[in-house]
Protein backbone atom coordinates (compact mmCIF):
# COMPACT_ATOMS: atom_id res chain seq x y z
CA UNK A 1 0.00 0.00 0.00
CA UNK A 2 1.21 3.49 -0.87
CA UNK A 3 1.71 5.61 2.25
CA UNK A 4 2.61 9.32 2.72
CA UNK A 5 6.30 10.16 2.45
CA UNK A 6 8.32 10.28 5.62
CA UNK A 7 8.88 13.60 7.35
CA UNK A 8 11.75 15.43 5.69
CA UNK A 9 11.60 13.23 2.59
CA UNK A 10 12.32 14.88 -0.75
CA UNK A 11 9.03 15.52 -2.54
CA UNK A 12 10.27 15.13 -6.11
CA UNK A 13 12.27 11.97 -5.36
CA UNK A 14 9.23 10.46 -3.65
CA UNK A 15 6.86 11.09 -6.56
CA UNK A 16 9.43 10.11 -9.19
CA UNK A 17 9.76 6.75 -7.45
CA UNK A 18 5.98 6.36 -7.61
CA UNK A 19 6.02 7.12 -11.34
CA UNK A 20 8.80 4.60 -11.95
CA UNK A 21 7.04 1.83 -10.03
CA UNK A 22 3.72 2.48 -11.78
CA UNK A 23 5.50 2.29 -15.14
CA UNK A 24 7.29 -0.93 -14.17
CA UNK A 25 4.24 -2.75 -12.80
CA UNK A 26 2.07 -2.06 -15.83
CA UNK A 27 -1.75 -1.79 -15.89
CA UNK A 28 -2.51 -3.20 -12.44
CA UNK A 29 -4.60 -1.82 -9.61
CA UNK A 30 -2.65 -0.10 -6.83
CA UNK A 31 -3.59 0.19 -3.19
CA UNK A 32 -3.46 3.78 -1.92
CA UNK A 33 -3.86 4.83 1.68
CA UNK A 34 -6.07 7.78 2.60
CA UNK A 35 -3.00 9.61 3.88
CA UNK A 36 -1.11 9.11 0.63
CA UNK A 37 -3.94 10.37 -1.59
CA UNK A 38 -4.58 13.34 0.70
CA UNK A 39 -0.92 14.34 0.59
CA UNK A 40 -0.69 13.86 -3.18
CA UNK A 41 -3.78 15.98 -3.80
CA UNK A 42 -2.58 18.73 -1.46
CA UNK A 43 0.84 18.80 -3.14
CA UNK A 44 -0.84 18.96 -6.56
CA UNK A 45 -3.11 21.77 -5.34
CA UNK A 46 -0.05 23.74 -4.30
CA UNK A 47 1.34 23.39 -7.83
CA UNK A 48 -1.99 24.32 -9.43
CA UNK A 49 -2.36 27.43 -7.31
CA UNK A 50 0.51 28.95 -9.28
CA UNK A 51 -0.87 27.86 -12.65
CA UNK A 52 -2.49 30.23 -15.13
CA UNK A 53 -5.78 29.34 -16.81
CA UNK A 54 -3.90 29.52 -20.11
CA UNK A 55 -0.59 27.67 -20.41
CA UNK A 56 2.04 28.45 -23.06
CA UNK A 57 4.40 25.74 -24.24
CA UNK A 58 6.98 25.26 -27.00
CA UNK A 59 8.02 22.13 -28.91
CA UNK A 60 9.19 19.45 -28.76
CA UNK A 61 5.95 18.32 -27.13
CA UNK A 62 3.39 15.50 -27.27
CA UNK A 63 -0.31 16.38 -27.41
CA UNK A 64 -2.71 13.78 -26.00
CA UNK A 65 -6.48 13.71 -26.48
CA UNK A 66 -9.13 11.99 -24.35
CA UNK A 67 -7.93 9.00 -22.33
CA UNK A 68 -10.99 8.55 -20.05
CA UNK A 69 -9.39 6.37 -17.36
CA UNK A 70 -7.57 4.14 -19.87
CA UNK A 71 -4.63 3.79 -17.50
CA UNK A 72 -2.94 1.13 -19.61
CA UNK A 73 -3.04 3.52 -22.55
CA UNK A 74 -1.35 6.23 -20.48
CA UNK A 75 1.46 3.81 -19.67
CA UNK A 76 1.70 2.86 -23.35
CA UNK A 77 1.83 6.53 -24.34
CA UNK A 78 4.84 7.09 -22.09
CA UNK A 79 6.52 3.91 -23.35
CA UNK A 80 5.87 4.67 -27.02
CA UNK A 81 6.19 8.46 -27.19
CA UNK A 82 8.72 9.27 -24.46
CA UNK A 83 8.97 9.02 -20.70
CA UNK A 84 7.48 11.95 -18.77
CA UNK A 85 10.88 12.77 -17.28
CA UNK A 86 12.33 13.18 -20.79
CA UNK A 87 9.49 14.65 -22.85
CA UNK A 88 6.97 17.51 -22.62
CA UNK A 89 3.30 16.52 -22.54
CA UNK A 90 -0.07 18.23 -22.88
CA UNK A 91 -3.23 16.28 -21.97
CA UNK A 92 -6.38 17.91 -23.38
CA UNK A 93 -8.76 16.92 -20.58
CA UNK A 94 -11.32 14.13 -20.12
CA UNK A 95 -8.69 12.33 -18.09
CA UNK A 96 -11.08 10.25 -16.01
CA UNK A 97 -14.59 8.94 -16.57
CA UNK A 98 -15.18 7.11 -13.30
CA UNK A 99 -14.34 3.71 -14.74
CA UNK A 100 -11.79 1.17 -13.61
CA UNK A 101 -8.29 2.56 -13.04
CA UNK A 102 -9.57 6.13 -12.62
CA UNK A 103 -7.51 6.55 -9.45
CA UNK A 104 -4.38 5.06 -11.02
CA UNK A 105 -4.78 7.40 -14.00
CA UNK A 106 -5.20 10.42 -11.76
CA UNK A 107 -2.29 9.45 -9.50
CA UNK A 108 0.33 9.01 -12.23
CA UNK A 109 -0.70 12.20 -14.05
CA UNK A 110 -0.60 14.26 -10.85
CA UNK A 111 2.77 12.80 -9.90
CA UNK A 112 4.10 13.87 -13.31
CA UNK A 113 2.66 17.37 -12.87
CA UNK A 114 4.27 17.74 -9.43
CA UNK A 115 7.67 16.53 -10.66
CA UNK A 116 7.73 18.38 -14.00
CA UNK A 117 5.36 21.36 -13.62
CA UNK A 118 6.76 23.34 -16.57
CA UNK A 119 6.81 20.40 -18.98
CA UNK A 120 3.58 18.61 -18.10
CA UNK A 121 0.26 20.32 -18.79
CA UNK A 122 -3.13 18.89 -17.80
CA UNK A 123 -6.23 20.70 -19.07
CA UNK A 124 -9.77 20.59 -17.73
CA UNK A 125 -12.12 18.68 -20.01
CA UNK A 126 -15.86 18.12 -20.14
CA UNK A 127 -15.77 15.35 -17.51
CA UNK A 128 -13.72 17.44 -15.10
CA UNK A 129 -15.86 20.52 -15.72
CA UNK A 130 -19.07 18.58 -15.03
CA UNK A 131 -17.67 17.19 -11.78
CA UNK A 132 -16.71 20.67 -10.60
CA UNK A 133 -20.07 22.31 -11.28
CA UNK A 134 -22.32 19.43 -10.17
CA UNK A 135 -23.03 17.79 -6.84
CA UNK A 136 -21.90 14.39 -8.08
CA UNK A 137 -19.04 12.55 -6.43
CA UNK A 138 -15.79 11.94 -8.27
CA UNK A 139 -16.14 8.20 -8.71
CA UNK A 140 -17.88 5.35 -6.98
CA UNK A 141 -14.42 3.84 -6.72
CA UNK A 142 -13.74 6.19 -3.80
CA UNK A 143 -16.62 4.67 -1.85
CA UNK A 144 -15.41 1.16 -2.61
CA UNK A 145 -11.82 1.82 -1.61
CA UNK A 146 -12.70 4.04 1.35
CA UNK A 147 -15.96 2.81 2.96
CA UNK A 148 -15.56 5.39 5.74
CA UNK A 149 -17.81 8.23 4.52
CA UNK A 150 -15.63 10.88 6.14
CA UNK A 151 -12.62 9.70 4.13
CA UNK A 152 -14.18 9.37 0.68
CA UNK A 153 -16.08 12.64 1.06
CA UNK A 154 -12.89 14.43 2.12
CA UNK A 155 -11.02 13.04 -0.90
CA UNK A 156 -13.91 13.91 -3.20
CA UNK A 157 -13.87 17.52 -1.98
CA UNK A 158 -10.12 17.87 -2.56
CA UNK A 159 -10.36 16.30 -6.02
CA UNK A 160 -13.10 18.74 -7.03
CA UNK A 161 -11.02 21.65 -5.74
CA UNK A 162 -8.07 20.39 -7.77
CA UNK A 163 -10.06 19.95 -10.98
CA UNK A 164 -11.42 23.47 -10.60
CA UNK A 165 -7.87 24.83 -10.74
CA UNK A 166 -6.84 23.02 -13.91
CA UNK A 167 -6.03 25.34 -16.83
CA UNK A 168 -8.53 25.33 -19.68
CA UNK A 169 -6.30 26.14 -22.66
CA UNK A 170 -2.76 25.65 -23.92
CA UNK A 171 -1.16 27.75 -26.66
CA UNK A 172 1.47 25.75 -28.51
CA UNK A 173 4.29 27.62 -30.22
CA UNK A 174 2.16 30.80 -30.14
CA UNK A 175 0.29 29.41 -33.15
CA UNK A 176 -1.93 26.51 -32.05
CA UNK A 177 -4.88 26.82 -29.66
CA UNK A 178 -5.34 23.60 -27.66
CA UNK A 179 -8.58 22.98 -25.73
CA UNK A 180 -10.89 20.11 -24.88
CA UNK A 181 -14.02 21.53 -26.51
CA UNK A 182 -14.12 24.73 -28.55
CA UNK A 183 -13.25 28.42 -28.35
CA UNK A 184 -15.47 31.35 -29.32
CA UNK A 185 -15.27 35.12 -29.30
CA UNK A 186 -19.06 35.26 -28.84
CA UNK A 187 -18.90 35.43 -25.06
CA UNK A 188 -21.94 34.24 -23.09
CA UNK A 189 -20.44 32.81 -19.89
CA UNK A 190 -17.88 35.04 -18.19
CA UNK A 191 -16.80 32.20 -15.88
CA UNK A 192 -15.22 30.43 -18.83
CA UNK A 193 -13.54 33.50 -20.35
CA UNK A 194 -9.75 33.66 -20.63
CA UNK A 195 -7.36 36.27 -21.96
CA UNK A 196 -4.99 34.82 -24.56
CA UNK A 197 -1.73 36.33 -25.76
CA UNK A 198 -1.93 36.76 -29.50
CA UNK A 199 0.55 35.30 -31.97
CA UNK A 200 3.77 36.93 -33.11
CA UNK A 201 2.14 39.52 -35.36
CA UNK A 202 0.01 40.91 -32.52
CA UNK A 203 2.15 39.85 -29.58
CA UNK A 204 1.42 43.01 -27.59
CA UNK A 205 -2.31 42.36 -27.65
CA UNK A 206 -4.54 39.88 -25.84
CA UNK A 207 -7.87 38.46 -26.97
CA UNK A 208 -10.73 37.55 -24.64
CA UNK A 209 -12.37 34.28 -25.65
CA UNK A 210 -14.74 31.82 -24.04
CA UNK A 211 -13.73 28.18 -23.67
CA UNK A 212 -16.75 25.97 -24.33
CA UNK A 213 -17.09 22.59 -22.62
CA UNK A 214 -19.20 20.72 -25.16
CA UNK A 215 -21.12 17.51 -24.52
CA UNK A 216 -18.87 14.64 -25.51
CA UNK A 217 -19.51 12.32 -28.44
CA UNK A 218 -22.64 14.18 -29.56
CA UNK A 219 -21.85 15.37 -33.07
CA UNK A 220 -24.09 18.11 -34.40
CA UNK A 221 -25.80 17.70 -37.78
CA UNK A 222 -23.33 18.38 -40.58
CA UNK A 223 -24.34 20.20 -43.74
CA UNK A 224 -22.22 22.02 -46.34
CA UNK A 225 -23.66 25.35 -45.20
CA UNK A 226 -22.90 24.59 -41.55
CA UNK A 227 -19.33 23.59 -42.37
CA UNK A 228 -18.83 26.79 -44.36
CA UNK A 229 -20.30 28.89 -41.56
CA UNK A 230 -18.23 27.30 -38.78
CA UNK A 231 -15.09 27.33 -40.92
CA UNK A 232 -15.52 31.05 -41.53
CA UNK A 233 -15.99 31.75 -37.81
CA UNK A 234 -12.89 29.75 -36.86
CA UNK A 235 -10.86 31.35 -39.66
CA UNK A 236 -11.76 34.87 -38.53
CA UNK A 237 -11.01 34.09 -34.89
CA UNK A 238 -7.64 32.51 -35.66
CA UNK A 239 -6.71 35.33 -38.02
CA UNK A 240 -7.58 37.98 -35.42
CA UNK A 241 -5.24 36.24 -32.96
CA UNK A 242 -2.52 35.45 -35.52
CA UNK A 243 -3.01 31.74 -34.86
CA UNK A 244 -2.94 29.00 -37.48
CA UNK A 245 -4.98 26.10 -36.10
CA UNK A 246 -7.04 24.72 -33.22
CA UNK A 247 -6.65 21.32 -31.56
CA UNK A 248 -9.37 19.65 -29.45
CA UNK A 249 -10.36 16.20 -28.22
CA UNK A 250 -13.91 15.99 -26.89
CA UNK A 251 -15.26 13.65 -29.58
CA UNK A 252 -13.95 10.13 -30.13
CA UNK A 253 -12.35 9.80 -33.57
CA UNK A 254 -12.17 6.28 -34.95
CA UNK A 255 -8.90 6.88 -36.80
CA UNK A 256 -7.37 8.59 -33.74
CA UNK A 257 -7.22 12.03 -35.35
CA UNK A 258 -9.21 13.99 -37.89
CA UNK A 259 -8.95 17.31 -39.73
CA UNK A 260 -12.23 19.25 -40.06
CA UNK A 261 -13.49 22.78 -40.74
CA UNK A 262 -11.31 23.05 -43.82
CA UNK A 263 -8.20 21.81 -42.00
CA UNK A 264 -8.40 24.48 -39.32
CA UNK A 265 -9.31 22.01 -36.54
CA UNK A 266 -7.61 18.77 -35.49
CA UNK A 267 -9.47 16.43 -33.15
CA UNK A 268 -7.29 13.90 -31.32
CA UNK A 269 -8.26 10.75 -29.41
CA UNK A 270 -5.49 9.06 -27.41
CA UNK A 271 -7.40 6.43 -25.42
CA UNK A 272 -8.15 3.23 -27.32
CA UNK A 273 -11.58 1.60 -27.59
CA UNK A 274 -13.46 4.45 -25.92
CA UNK A 275 -16.65 3.63 -27.81
CA UNK A 276 -18.55 0.36 -27.45
CA UNK A 277 -19.80 0.32 -31.02
CA UNK A 278 -16.35 0.52 -32.62
CA UNK A 279 -12.70 0.15 -31.68
CA UNK A 280 -11.13 3.54 -32.13
CA UNK A 281 -7.41 3.90 -32.51
CA UNK A 282 -5.42 5.92 -29.98
CA UNK A 283 -3.08 8.58 -31.34
CA UNK A 284 -0.61 11.09 -29.90
CA UNK A 285 0.34 14.20 -31.86
CA UNK A 286 4.12 14.56 -31.61
CA UNK A 287 5.70 17.88 -32.59
CA UNK A 288 9.49 18.12 -32.77
CA UNK A 289 11.63 21.20 -32.27
CA UNK A 290 11.42 21.97 -36.00
CA UNK A 291 7.59 22.04 -35.85
CA UNK A 292 7.32 18.80 -37.80
CA UNK A 293 4.34 16.73 -36.64
CA UNK A 294 3.77 12.98 -36.61
CA UNK A 295 0.71 11.12 -35.34
CA UNK A 296 1.91 8.14 -33.30
CA UNK A 297 -0.40 5.15 -32.83
CA UNK A 298 -1.09 3.82 -29.33
CA UNK A 299 -1.91 0.12 -29.12
CA UNK A 300 -3.16 0.18 -25.53
CA UNK A 301 -3.23 -2.68 -23.05
CA UNK A 302 -5.43 -4.80 -25.30
CA UNK A 303 -5.06 -2.97 -28.60
CA UNK A 304 -4.52 -4.68 -31.91
CA UNK A 305 -2.06 -3.77 -34.61
CA UNK A 306 -3.88 -1.62 -37.17
CA UNK A 307 -1.81 -1.77 -40.35
CA UNK A 308 -4.56 0.05 -42.24
CA UNK A 309 -4.08 3.19 -40.17
CA UNK A 310 -0.64 4.53 -41.00
CA UNK A 311 1.14 7.38 -39.23
CA UNK A 312 0.91 10.51 -41.35
CA UNK A 313 3.59 13.23 -41.15
CA UNK A 314 2.51 16.87 -41.23
CA UNK A 315 4.34 20.16 -41.10
CA UNK A 316 2.58 23.07 -39.35
Brief description of this entry?
InterPro entries: Calcineurin-like_PHP, Metallo-depent_PP-like, PP1_catalytic_subunit, Ser/Thr-sp_prot-phosphatase. The chain has a single domain, classed as Purple Acid Phosphatase, chain A, domain 2, CATH 3.60.21.
Question: What is the topology?
Answer:
Blueprint: H1 11-25, H2 34-48, E1 54-57, E2 61-64, H3 71-81, E3 89-91, H4 102-115, E4 120-122, H5 126-133, H6 140-145, H7 149-164, E5 169-172, E6 176-178, E7 182-184, E8 193-197, E9 206-212, H8 224-240, E10 245-248, E11 257-260, E12 265-268, E13 282-287, E14 292-298, E15 313-315
Parallel strand pairs: 1-5, 2-3, 3-4, 6-10, 10-12
Antiparallel strand pairs: 2-13, 5-6, 7-9, 8-9, 11-12, 13-14, 14-15
Give an overview in words.
41% of the residues are buried. This protein has 316 residues and is an alpha/beta fold. Helices cover 32% and strands 20% of the residues. It has one domain (11-291): Purple Acid Phosphatase, chain A, domain 2. Helix 3 links the parallel strand 2 and strand 3 (89-91).
Strand content: 15-25%
What share of the residues lie within helices? 25-40%
Q: Give a count of the beta strands, DSSP E runs of length 2 or more.
A: 15
Average pLDDT level: 88
Rg over C-alpha atoms, rounded to the nearest angstrom: 19 Å
What string gives the helices and strands in order? HHEEHEHEHHHEEEEEHEEEEEE
Which CATH top level class fits?
A: Alpha Beta
Q: Could you describe the largest sheet, including whether it forms a barrel?
A: 6 strands, mixed
CATH architecture: 4-Layer Sandwich
Protein name: Serine/threonine specific protein phosphatases domain-containing protein
Pfam family, one: Metallophos
InterPro entries: Calcineurin-like_PHP, Metallo-depent_PP-like, PP1_catalytic_subunit, Ser/Thr-sp_prot-phosphatase
Domain Serine/threonine specific protein phosphatases: 32-304
Amino acid sequence: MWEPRQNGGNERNFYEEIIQIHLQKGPVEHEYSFGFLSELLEDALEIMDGTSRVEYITPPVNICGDIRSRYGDVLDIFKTCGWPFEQKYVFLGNLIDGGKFSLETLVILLCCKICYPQNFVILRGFYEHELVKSDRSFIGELRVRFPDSNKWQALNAIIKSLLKRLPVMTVLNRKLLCVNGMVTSNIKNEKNVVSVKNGNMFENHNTRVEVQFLDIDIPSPVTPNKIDEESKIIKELLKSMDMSMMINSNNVVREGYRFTLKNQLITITSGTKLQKNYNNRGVVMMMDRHNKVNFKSIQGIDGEDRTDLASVPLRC
